[in-house]
Write a structure and sequence with these properties.
The complex is a heterodimer. Chain A has helices at 4-9, 25-35, 49-54, 74-90, 106-111, 114-123, 173-178, 193-204, 219-222, 229-238, 264-268, 283-303; strands spanning 41-45, 66-67, 99-105, 128-133, 184-189, 210-215, 245-248, 251-254. By secondary structure, chain A is of the alpha/beta class. Chain A is globular and about 70 Å long. Chain A starts with a helix and ends with a helix. Chain B has 2 domains: 6-246, Rossmann fold, CATH 3.40.50.970; 253-388, Rossmann fold. In chain B, the strands form 4 sheets. A 6-stranded mixed sheet of chain B has the order 11-13-12-15-16-17, with helices on both faces. Chain B has a 5-stranded mixed sheet with strand order 5-6-8-7-14. The N and C termini of chain B lie far apart (52 Å). Classes of the chains: A alpha/beta, B alpha/beta.
């Protein structure tokens, strides 16, 4: 469990002055992840909002060794860095403990970077991969990804007169990571800081690969006022649209169970990307989404032994 | 110096050089005809003959991404590939060079798809000619080995990545005599790698790969261009040191009887060996034939080439790759460009040969010199570009 007082005394490793939008969750998440690290860290970030907005040359918001290679290769890049660390440590050229963290958006993780991530996890490098998941390609202007939820309107799956936004359900990447027999995988959301930081601590203490899929609001892409970012992040967990759980050595554990599961419409209505779903002709679609959320939640409860 | 001679293929010789280099990190992926390099090296790792951290990645894109990460982290890092593998690395090739990382990569030349073909031509590395990598080409197994050893020093002095090529199957899979350095000689020649700035130095954090816009990008690219210019001196200096220590001479190119020739060819790779036989035959017939074998294609030694070729009457440039630009092959463009400033320019023609491993023999090369002599006699060029040995 993270202690707020203690956290407030730690050194900020991602500092202000970066150009992320007001209300962007990515910066909040990255800052909290770094606060959770007790050892020195080396960070890799894939191409995306977090990368471009924090490192416009000659400025950098990062107080840790930081590297951006390309879009699809954060996991393979950090594999090479971790391999170098093992090698130099074995040869006695480095003697301290260092932890390795890769950040990628959902585009760089669920889609174009999935192969590199799968390879790195299978090989068993010791690193934490953080997907800051804003559910679309926000850096290039809100295009759909395989993390975009069904019904959301994006610029490449827009809500039109014939098609009501994205047709497909999103991919379940955490379960895909679990299928790799990854020692530690978890979901988290911006707004549940203690849950998030506690999970990062566990992930960094894992001797092997670890993965966290963190729901990260993009207020431009999702369409909500910037001050609602964290509320909306919590609402995702309260509606079970984004359940919070962890999988330790294959064992599922629920880390947050809402006292009263709220209807998914409460989550949907906070964001402009779902606005069209509230037209009378799309009523059926909202029902489908609610059924899907319920089904997934029941499955998860079963996996967690919470039935 | 070692006098131990052994029969080795180029793949085996490269793996042997890598054993002696003992890189901190090797990340690689199998691809014909370079697979053996990784295979033999993996055995060295399994048998404890090297202390390398071997990363068996899931693609060449990840291989190059991982060695870029490893190199930036402070490791001496290597990979090896060929053809489609190099093509898949493309995006990261430019990043390796622009970040000034001394990555070393043996590259076995193979044709690019389509149609799929596993045999030798130079389309793969020629396509990467503008990626900011130093490119060293090899005529023989011995040269391949010597180039790999020198590449480590060249890369780390110039802070540019180095690609050492060898001809697929013709060299990669054929036994030739190799005189390797003794392990100690190789180790002493290469020396320790001591990077100035590296990511694992967590007490001195720095940011790499930042967004670089209109106000700085151009300056960074200009510095990279300067590094390539400066690398010329480094390549020559390391070649001289290698010759002093081990007796084998390495420069930008080999002048095989060019200096007093009237007709000469410019050749890259193993075909130079065949061409030397033809030159010797022609010389016996009192024909003033010569061969310029290019070793260093990047940086391109334009001034030095111009100096050597200026008195030749007719030149044929042999390209084992096509630029598909409706004019000529890539080497021809560069050689002709290098000669432009001469007051009296030699006549020059281009032959594209050997694509997809099509064999080239004494007869074909002899026919080129016959063409050159005819041009020398008549002063007339019938065809600027000839596709040699193809059914048309």
């Amino acid at each position: 469990m993270a202690n707020l007082k203690e956290l407030s005394e730690r050194k900020e490793l991602l500092v202000g002055g970066h150009r992320l939008c007001p209300g962007c969750a990515a910066g909040i998440i990255a800052r909290q992840v770094l606060l959770a690290a007790k050892e020195p860290v080396v960070v890799v970030t894939s191409t995306g909002c977090l990368e471009v907005a924090t490192t416009i040359f000659p400025y950098s918001a990062w107080k840790v060794p930081w590297f951006h290679n390309a879009f699809e290769n954060a996991a393979s890049t950090i594999s090479g860095i971790e391999a170098a660390y093992r090698s130099l440590k074995r040869k006695g050229k480095i003697d301290k403990e260092i932890r390795f963290i890769a950040f990628g958006g959902d585009g760089g993780t669920y889609d174009i970077g999935l192969q590199a991530l799968s390879g790195a996890v299978e090989r068993g490098h010791r690193f934490l991969y953080i997907c800051y998941n804003n559910q679309a390609y926000m850096n290039t202007g809100i295009q759909r990804s395989s993390a975009t939820p069904k019904g959301a309107s994006t610029t490449t799956a827009p809500a039109g007169t014939v098609i009501p936004g994205k047709i497909q359900f999103r991919k379940d990447l955490t379960r895909i990571m679990v299928a790799h027999q990854i020692p530690y995988a978890a979901t988290a959301t911006a707004g549940k800081w203690n849950d998030l930081i506690t999970k990062v601590e566990k992930a960094l203490a894992t001797d092997g690969p670890s993965f966290m899929d963190i729901l990260s609001s993009c207020r431009l892409g999702w369409g909500h006022p910037p001050e609602q970012t964290l509320t909306i992040g919590r609402l995702a967990a309260d509606t079970c649209f984004w359940p919070l759980y962890e999988v330790v050595a294959g064992e599922y554990h629920l880390t947050y169970k809402p006292k009263k599961k709220r209807p998914v419409t409460e989550w949907l209505k906070t964001q402009a990307r779902f606005k069209h779903l509230f037209k009378p002709e799309n009523k059926g679609l909202i029902d489908t989404i609610q059924n899907y959320v319920d089904e997934q939640w029941q499955k998860l409860l079963k996996l967690c032994g919470e039935e | 110096m070692s006098e131990k001679r052994m029969a080795k293929t180029a793949n085996e010789a490269i793996a042997e050089a890598m054993r002696q280099i003992n890189p901190d990190v090797v990340a690689a992926y199998p691809i014909t005809p370079a697979t053996e390099i990784v295979q033999i090296f993996s055995q060295f790792v399994a048998d404890g003959k090297v202390t390398t951290e071997f990363v068996p990645v899931e693609s060449e894109h990840s291989a190059m991404s991982a060695v870029v990460g490893a190199s930036l982290a402070g490791a001496r890092a290597m990979t090896a590939t060929s053809s489609q593998g190099l093509a898949l690395m493309w995006e990261i090739l430019y990043i390796a060079s622009a970040l000034r990382l001394p990555v070393i990569m043996p590259m076995v030349n193979r044709a690019l798809s389509a149609p799929i073909n596993i045999h030798c031509d130079h389309s793969d590395s020629m396509g990467a000619r503008d990626s900011g990598w130093i490119q060293l080409y090899s005529e023989s197994v011995q040269e391949t080995y010597d180039n790999v050893i020198q590449a480590v020093r060249i890369a780390e002095r110039s802070l540019l990545p180095v690609m050492v090529t060898t001809d697929g199957f013709i060299l990669s899979h054929c036994l030739e005599l190799l005189t390797p350095l003794l392990d100690k000689e190789a180790k002493d020649f290469i020396g320790e790698y001591r990077p100035k700035n590296f990511l694992l130095d967590t007490e001195h954090p720095f940011t790499v790969g930042a967004l670089d816009l209109q106000d700085y990008y151009f300056e960074h690219k200009r510095q990279e261009a300067e590094a390539m210019i400066e690398s010329k001196k480094i390549i020559l200096k390391i070649g001289e040191e290698f010759e002093r220590k081990f007796g084998r001479r390495y420069e930008f190119f080999e002048d095989y009887k060019v200096i007093d020739s009237e007709v000469a060819t410019v050749v890259i790779g193993s075909a130079a060996g065949t061409t030397k036989v033809v030159v010797d035959q022609l010389r016996e017939e009192k024909i003033k034939a010569g061969l310029l074998k290019l070793r260093v294609f990047r940086p391109f030694p334009a001034e030095e080439l111009k100096e050597l070729l200026k008195n030749v009457k007719v030149i044929a440039v042999l390209d084992r790759a096509d630029s598909l630009n409706a004019v000529s092959g890539p080497l021809f463009s560069e050689i002709r460009n290098a000669l432009y400033d001469l007051e009296e320019r030699p006549k020059i023609v281009n032959y594209i040969y050997g694509l997809g491993g099509r064999d080239i023999g004494l007869k074909e090369i002899h026919s080129i010199y016959e063409d050159l002599e005819e041009i020398n006699r008549t002063g007339k060029i019938k065809s600027l570009l000839t596709y040699l040995g193809v059914r048309e």
